[in-house]
């Protein structure tokens, strides 16, 4: 039997913002089905930038990106990618734009060609799974930070991605809500890369740890190694 192609493969990716040094420097990454990668690294080390490169929101200065064995270069390639790969933005306000919660969560499925009733049904089910069914008629921009984060996650999950990129999903969540998130992620049949500074949270949902350092990924880092090296990683903003 031949092994299926990796879900995602990055080869020698480099990237700089205009007028600055390299944020990503010949970075390599491969994600296979079932991978649940925890990604750590100091603030400003390029973790969010990496996610934006993967989603085609930024264009690398060199290197190649492949999804399911096919190269992704043009906007058109990345439009296909969005059917299978979802990004939870670091800032929920970048994700939410519809007047009500239900409309926001139904937007993705509608865009994927579902009928209006189907999209609403999927949206309701997704909200239910996250324990926020009662949010459906709430006005999105009036939600609290933690509530927005959950709704943003619902907008991504409703599209049933095969790969999920989660940029600090636990920020602003109380312990109870974090536990719901851990339960949801552990039940999902999908692969993900998750950026977090919280070692407890991370150890409950990741099966491997990578660390961003000097524009590259160090693989199979032990969480305690990182915490030891960066004692207060969340407080350096
Ligand atoms: N839009 C931008 N324009 C210029 N520089 C940026 C921009 N976004 C991020 N940077 C810089 O790139 C580096 C990496 O940022 P980022 O990927 O957000 O790091 P992390 O997510 O690991 O905290 C930082 O030095 C940051 O200041
Ligand atoms: Mg970031």
Outline the structure in words.
- By secondary structure, the chain is α/β, with parallel strands linked by helices.
- The chain folds into two domains: 1-84 and 162-175 and 188-227, P-loop containing nucleotide triphosphate hydrolases (Rossmann fold, 3-Layer(aba) Sandwich), CATH 3.40.50; 93-160, no CATH class.
- 34% of the residues lie in helices and 23% in strands.
- The chain has helices at 47-54, 75-81, 101-111, 116-129, 145-157, 175-187, 199-205, 223-229, and strands spanning 8-16, 22-31, 36-40, 62-67, 70-71, 85-88, 163-167, 191-195, 208-213, 216-218.
- The strands form two sheets. A six-stranded mixed beta sheet has the order 6-7-8-3-9-10, sandwiched between helices. A four-stranded antiparallel beta sheet has the order 2-1-4-5, with helices on one face.
- β7, α6 (175-187) and β8 (191-195) form a beta-alpha-beta unit.
- α3 runs parallel beside α5 (145-157).
- The longest helix is centred in the middle third of the chain and has 14 residues, at 116-129.
- It binds adenosine-5'-diphosphate and magnesium ion.
- The site of magnesium ion (MG) has 4 residues, from α1.
């Amino acid at each position: 039997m031949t092994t299926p192609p990796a879900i995602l493969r990055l080869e020698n990716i480099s990237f700089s913002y205009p007028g600055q040094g390299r944020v990503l420097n010949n970075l390599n990454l491969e994600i296979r089905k079932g991978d649940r990668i925890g990604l750590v690294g100091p603030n400003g080390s390029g973790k969010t930038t990496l996610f934006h490169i993967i989603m085609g929101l930024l264009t690398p200065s060199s290197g190649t990106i492949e999804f399911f064995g096919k190269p992704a270069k043009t906007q058109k390639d990345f439009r296909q990618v969005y059917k299978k790969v979802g990004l939870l933005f670091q800032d929920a306000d970048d994700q939410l734009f519809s007047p009500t919660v239900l409309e926001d969560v139904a937007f993705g499925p509608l865009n994927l060609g579902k009928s209006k009733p189907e999209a609403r049904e999927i949206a309701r089910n997704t909200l239910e799974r996250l324990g926020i069914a009662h949010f459906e008629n709430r006005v999105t921009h009036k939600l609290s930070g933690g509530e927005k984060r959950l709704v943003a996650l619902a907008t991504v999950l409703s599209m049933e991605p095969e790969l999920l990129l989660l940029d600090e999903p636990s920020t602003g969540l109380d312990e109870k809500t974090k536990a719901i998130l851990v339960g949801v992620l552990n039940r999902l049949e999908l692969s993900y890369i998750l950026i977090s500074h919280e070692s407890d949270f991370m150890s409950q949902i990741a099966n491997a740890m990578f660390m961003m350092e000097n524009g590259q990924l160090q693989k199979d880092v032990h969480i305690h190694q990182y915490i030891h090296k960066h004692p207060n990683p969340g407080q350096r903003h």
